[in-house]
Every structure is written in C-alpha cells, then in structure tokens.
Amino acid sequence: MHACSPLERAVIVQVRASSSSFEYPVCFTSDVFSPMNRDLRHLLVRREPDQRHRVAAIVDRGALAAQPELNLHIERYARCHNDALDLVAPPIVQGGGENMKDDATLPSRLQAYFHALELDRRSILLTVGGASLLDLAGFAASTMQSAPRVVRVPTTTLAQAGPAVLPKSSINAFGTKDFLCTFRAPFAVVCDRRFVETQKTREKVFGLVQAVRAALLWDEQLFGWIVAHAHRVASGERDAVAELLQRSAALHADLAAHTSDEEVYGPEGPLAFGAWAADRIELSTERRIRQGEALAVGIALDTTLGALHRTLGEADREAIHRLLERLGLRLWHDALGNVDSEGRLLLLDGLSERSFGHAPRVPLLCGIGRGVTSQELREDVLREAITRLAHRDAHRAHAFALA
Asked: 3-dehydroquinate synthase C-terminal domain location, by residue (predicted)?
C-alpha cells in the first residue's frame, strides 16, 4: 500500500446482508488511481486473483472538470496493472447532476455501449462520479441479463455519505424522483478522500446534510459529534469531513446489511424522512437548487412536523435546527409556500400517487437517533409547520440585517 498518514490508510467496511444474497466491501482510501495504491486492484480481482479482468469506465463530467487529468490517471492505472486489468476502451464522459436521471433515453444508450464492448457478468464497470451518475450507470447495468460487476467510485460528499453505499440504483420517471429502481448490490464501493477535497466548501457542506440525516435517524452519538465539531464541518476541514463521511457510510452499510428491501424501500420509502419535501422543492425549481440544500429544508420541515405531532420534543427540534444553521444551511425555500389557483399547497402535488393511492403518511422522528414513526400528512398541520419555518427565516434575516 502507498505511504499515507494514519487517517488516510485504507479502511474497509464489509456489507454482508442477513436477508439477501449480496456481500460487498466499502473501502475508504486516498489517491485511488495512483499506480502505487493497490486498493482498487485488490477489490477488482478479489474473486479471481489469477485472471485478467475486462474493465470499462464511465466518468462524471463534473469530476473531470475538477481533476482534468482523471481519465489519464485511470488509463495509467490500468497500464501499470495490466497483468490483472484490461481497460477495453478509454473512459467515456457523461454529464452529471439530477437532470441526467430524467432522460429516459440514457439507460438504453449506455446499454448499447456496454453491448458494443461485450461486457458480461465477469466484466467490471467502473463508475466514477456523483450520486446521479452512479445511479444512472448502475440502473443501466443492473437491468442487463448479463450484468457487469459495478464498482462505484463516488466523488462527492453527498454520494460518499450514503447513497453510493446502498444496494440500489434508480432513475426518475413520470415527474417522480427515483420512480424506477433496481436492487442490485455493487461489486465494491471505493471512497477516495482526495475527490471531496476538490469540492468547494459550500458544496461539501450541502452534501454532508446526508450524514446529518443518517445521524438523526440512527445514531445519537454521531449527532452529538457533529454538534461538537460543527465549526470544523462547516469550514470543510479535511479530517472532520473524512471522519464524518466514513461514519455516515458505515451507518448506511449497516442498514443495507441488516434491513430488507421492503423495510427500507416499502410504502413509506418514497416519502422518506426529510426527502419528500426536498424532492418537491427540487422539482418546482427545475432542479436548480442543490440536492443537499433542499434536503436541509426537508429535514427542517419534517422535524417541525414532528414537534407539532409531539413525536419529537421541542428541545430536540431546536437542537437540530440550530445545528443546520451553524453549518450555514438555510431552513427555508420559497417553494414551501407556493399554492395553486385554489390555494392548495403545491408541496402536496403527486403525494397520493407516491403513497400508492392512500392518504399520504410521512415518517417523523421519534427522537434523535431513534428512528421514525408514520403519521398522516394533514394539510393544516403542514401549513402550520411552513408558517413556523417562514417566521424563523424572517427573524434570522432581520437579525443579519441588523448585525
């Protein structure tokens, strides 16, 4: 292994599902495409160490913009390990971002490319990029009869904090986020700390909202750690970000290993904690708002709803809101208050369909780190929660103006 500091030594979390047949490693390393770093090679050849493996690569255009030599580094890595790896074509570049998952033609176009390369179940598809690219490429590959082994290399804090670790891939359809989904585990996940260092601080923090959400759902101690280190996290400090990402990914890995698909992605999955309102905000703004930024607003709304339903104490709600604000996140977006011509909240559009025709129910926190309980989404309570967030945002704006 290449020389590195103690924090940078490779850490591997093994995901072994108790209710399914999948097993895969999640590796944290640095400089994954350095020829001296054998972590990636080890993961790719671990099942057939004496064979030469055919590899294809897809790279996110955003990751390439941040590291212009990235494709060259991938090709160099393959050349230096050509006894084990056969890069069958130069890496292709695909645009990133959530809008990419709206294009219904992209999965079939990628499948046509995989077919042209004659990828099969012994081949490896290396996907390097943000959560949206990992979703798209994983969906396209997993719906092939002879699906290649997908190795994810997430390049953003949002992806590394959790989505890249879960054994699913999804795309948007019919105006609904992640409407089409496959539950096929990756062959491996490799989180390179160097990639997130190329992100701007604000982008890092927006992505780390995913880690805050994981702490709220499953780990009270991690929430306390984030509170204690909020300044370090908000400034994008390297070691603090690395530790938070690793702990959040481990929580998601544990979820994947010990929870069935039905439990995680069942009837309440589409209205997941913090995510349902975030999805509506993204859609109403034509995805101009960042995903993590919208998720912060969604968490603020759901925790306010939890306090109104008394599933969550006011002290916990305030602690959560204060933490998000200390991270520099806004708890409001104007889309929350948008109404149609009859005065009905646009936030409610499409929720009945996403709730399988039943009255929408949302999972609300039972307490920090204590999971959720399902509650019916009442419009009068939702309006009250929105009003409270609007007043809080106006009060903060006034305070800033006077400062």
From this structure: 207-334
Rg (CA), the chain: 21
Distance from the Cα of residue 342 to its chain's centroid? 36
**Count of positions (residues) in the chain:** 403
Cβ–Cβ < 8 Å for 90, 96: no
pLDDT of the residue at 4: 40
266-402 folds as Dehydroquinate synthase-like, alpha domain (1.20.1090)
Mean pLDDT taken over the chain: 88
pLDDT digits (tens, 9 = 90+) for 149-175: 999 999 999 999 999 999 889 998 887
- Single-letter amino acid code for the residue at 392: R
Closest by Cα among 281, 299, 266, 271 to 365 = 299
The residue-averaged pLDDT of 195-222 equals: 95
Q: Do the two domains 6-209 and 266-402 of this chain adopt the same fold? A: no
The CATH class of the 6-209 domain is alpha beta
* CA distance to 5, 283, 305, 306, 375, per residue, from 311 (Å): 44, 28, 9, 5, 9
Query: Which residues in 282-314 are b (16+ Cβ under 10 Å) and which e?
Result: bbbeebebbbbbbbbbbbbbbbbbbbbbebbee
Q: Where are the domains of the chain?
A: 6-209, 266-402
Residues 6+ apart with CB under 8 A from 325: 331, 396
